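Hi D.,

Good news: the full-assembly prediction came through. Inputs first.
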Amino acid sequence: MKKLVALVVAAIMLLSLTSVFAEAPKTITMWCIATESDANRPAYEAAIAEIEAQYNVKIEWEAFENQSYKTKIKAAMADASTLPDIFFTWAGAFCGDFAKAGNVYCLEDAYKAYADALPAVMLQNASYDVDGNGAKPYAVPLTMNIVTLFANMDLLKQAGWDAVPTTYDDLIACCDDLVAAGIIPFGCSGSETWCVTEYLEPIIEKTIGYEKLNKIFAGTESWDDADIATAVDTFQYMINKGYFDPDGLSLGNDQVKANFIAGKYAFYQNGSWNCGEVNDAEGNFQVALFPVMNAEKATYGQVIGGPSDSLAVAATAEDPAFVADVAFALGKAICHYGYLAGSGLPAWTPDYDTSAVKPLVAAVADIVANSEGMVLFGDTAMSADPANIYLDYVSKVYGCAIDGAGFVAGLTEALPVAE
Amino acid sequence: MKTTGTYKLHILLFLLPGLILFIGILIAPIVMSVYYSLFDFHQIDGSDRVFKGIENYVTLFSRTLTNPVTGNVYENTKFLGDALVNALLLALLSTFIQLPIALLIALRLGKGIKGERAYLSVFFMPVLISTVIIGRLWMNIYDPGDAGILNAGLRALGIDQWLFPKISEGITSSTLKFKGQWTGFKETALIAAFIPILWQYVGYHALLMYAGVKGVPTDLLEAASLDGCTEGQVNRLIIIPYIKPILRVCVVFAVTGSLKSFDLVYALMKDTTKAELPSTLMYKLLYLHNDYGMGSTIAVILIVLCFAFALLISLIFRSRGEKVA
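Then the structure:
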């Protein structure tokens, strides 16, 4: 009996010793913009719980409101020691400035383990030539988004249309029919300039083609193009014809979106992150792309958007290679849960059951799969100063304070081609 | 006998903590802003800093710029002139509309009326509400649709039929017609921002003036009354001169507050270009454009203007023999 007791006591001691020497979870800090009200919040929560268990890590994360986060992360870059291990960033010039300042860990090696699940093309927007040895990836894409034309099919039917117009002439005819039926064709917020770009950029792209627009946003080609002026004039023609809700000039995007969902407008052109919300709303909605304006230079399948929302690893992280691996796994998981929830399209190739994906989200995913060219959102593709000069001009376009010629002339001089 | 000189070291030691705080919190940031305003840089750590001298100041006051390569002229989207004019207009409206209203309220309440405290609380309440909430509240009031109480009221009374076309005639910044989008046009946005500012701060100034009115010795008022002064004469000849130091403080607050005004305009209009003020432009240049040199230049201009106006107002209000504070 004594031997048995001794054996049990020894076993208990051994077990307790095992627990003492068991590896305590590593702590990884993270900043992001998935606040309580953000559509991506549930995806972040589910992904973090999954990765914490998988990697035996404790992710201490904080979420900040979008605009204040931009200020916070830029301020933190001035003193890299204040950066968290993983931080949310937008691809394009936003992350490029941080990478070029040497504050972001290069993910070239960490990517190799995930190359099968994440197509290299998805890393392009966050790849930078920092050391003169070619572009390398510096951020893990999460979801991707494109500008989508949402259509209220019930309202279109009232105007005699059973399908979303796919040519410009049809769109104009449809808008005329809608106006005649007392329905406002489009809603667009004028108090948030990025919402105006959601209309203007696709119109410009469908006039001059995605390749040229990419070069203009990259600063390697001039804005001096008569077709851009024509595109702007076309947009203003639609505004002046009464195709846009005049109230939109002083409304915020939330109000405009609410109006669309409530059935006030037939069309609403905005980011595909709205798919889940529109899908869940009452009514018959479909998604499409803005039609081609100049068939010689553009095709219907050219889209505005691409992977932008990303996670980056701070160069100051204690074990950057391990943190980079966690960032990739986390990015993949956020993409997975976000896609299923309808808060974005997958930048990662789905390796899970997608039958539960909401129909509108699946429809946009299909559009992306068949896209014939992509241009990243202008204010993301350009660095901060030119992006905001560009937005100042866009703001004047919606208010009809300048015409196409003024827009082109101003931007040609204000944003000259990089030497 | 020990003189002040004997205690020089002690005095210095006792002054030192306050002096360090004063220099560290007020003087050093101003000096740094002046220094930064002489450079062009877009990286927050200043790694791309290029010395420009007073070029930033010149650029901010240039309505147009010239492309150095083509020689073509184009519009300067960072032009400060319009924002300064808007701020000065706001200061004028605050001084000549907001403060007289506050004075009338203070004079009326200061005489002692039934429910005096309750009225005071009601007038002061907007000061206690967060500006963001006030911005949201007025966004709803200005809503161009039927949800907006202002436009709904105008439509119900039929006033919109003649008012909106008249406003449209005055709009030169756009070819679009005014249909009740108060925050959508340059010509109406500043007024739309001023009304909530007036509403929010009139109670604050009224409270300050009310305290002054209550401090007027009753024997003075009684003497005036016995001499046959009317209420208007008492107000004009006794109370207002008596509360002149408070009026001066109110004017300084109203003018410098207008120059620094930011939060309500930002909360009311996310795109502030239609009612641009120096502070909103500074925010845009610092945090959206990452143009830290230009942003610092506006900060310096604002500091100089606020000091200059405070001094000017003190000079205007100076009584004979009184020194300027």
